[in-house]
Structure formats: C-alpha cells, structure tokens
Amino acid sequence: MSEAELIFTALAELSTRQIAESVQATGMAANKTAATTGGRIARQARNQLESQTGKSVVTGANYLPPDVPKMPKLPKAAKAVETAKPTPVNKPSKNA
Questions:
Q1: Per-residue pLDDT for 62 more than 90?
Q2: Is the pTM of this model over 0.70?
Q3: How far is CA 20 from the centre of its chain?
Q4: Which of 18, 35, 52, 75 is most buried by its number of CB atoms within 10 A?
C-alpha cells in the first residue's frame, strides 16, 4: 500500500471506532452501521484529495511481486530445537 492508502485506511478505522464508541454500539448490526459510516468518511476524504490532485490514491505500485523468494525450510533437527520447551532452572535455596 502507498502512504496515502495507509492514511485513508487509518482514517476509516479511527472514524469507525470513534463512531461506535459514541453511539455505544453493541452487536453486529450497530457495529456494521458504524463501519459503514466510518468508511464513508474516509471515502469522501479520498475522493476530495483525488479531485484536487488529479491522481488516484489507490495504486498497485508498492506490492510485493509474486516471485519473492520464500524462506528456506529448516531441517527437522532444527525444528525440534526451535519448538523444544526450555528446561527449568533450579533456583538456589534460601538456606544455602
């Protein structure tokens, strides 16, 4: 996502949360209404910016290409070490 896409996403989330808190939304229906209203606020802001700049906020330029190399798989012995639980440490007694 571009910087602008992240900002408008954050605006939608913040707006939704504040609206839900102000109306004390409980349940799916009330939260869906708050989400719709929060999304509408972000959409209006995005449309206004796009009309002023003449450029689209949404872009596909900053995505990871599908041929990104994947992390190599660890050998089974390394996986066992990774998932092993730590051994408990004996604490010295107070009488020692």
A1: no
A2: no
A3: 19
A4: 35
Q: Residue 62: CB partners within 8 Å, gap ≥ 6?
A: 1, 2
Question: Position of tokens 């609206």?
Answer: 19
Asked whether 34 and 27 are in contact (CB, 8 A), the reply is: no
Other beta carbons less than 10 A from residue 19's beta carbon: 19
Quick one: how far is CA 91 from the chain centroid? 41
- For residue 59, what are its two tokens? 């872009």
Residue 65, pLDDT above cutoff 70: no
* Whether pLDDT at 28 is above 90: yes
The upper half-sphere exposure of residue 7, i.e. CA atoms within 13 Å in the direction of its Cβ, equals 8
Helix (H) or strand (E) holding 27, with range, is helix 27-53
For 1-96, where are the alpha helices, taking DSSP H only?
3-22, 27-53, 76-83
Q: For residue 30, with 0-12 CB atoms within 10 Å meaning exposed, 13-18 middle and 19 or more buried, which class applies?
A: middle
Length of the chain: 96
Residue pLDDT, tens place only, 71-89: 777 777 655 555 666 666 6
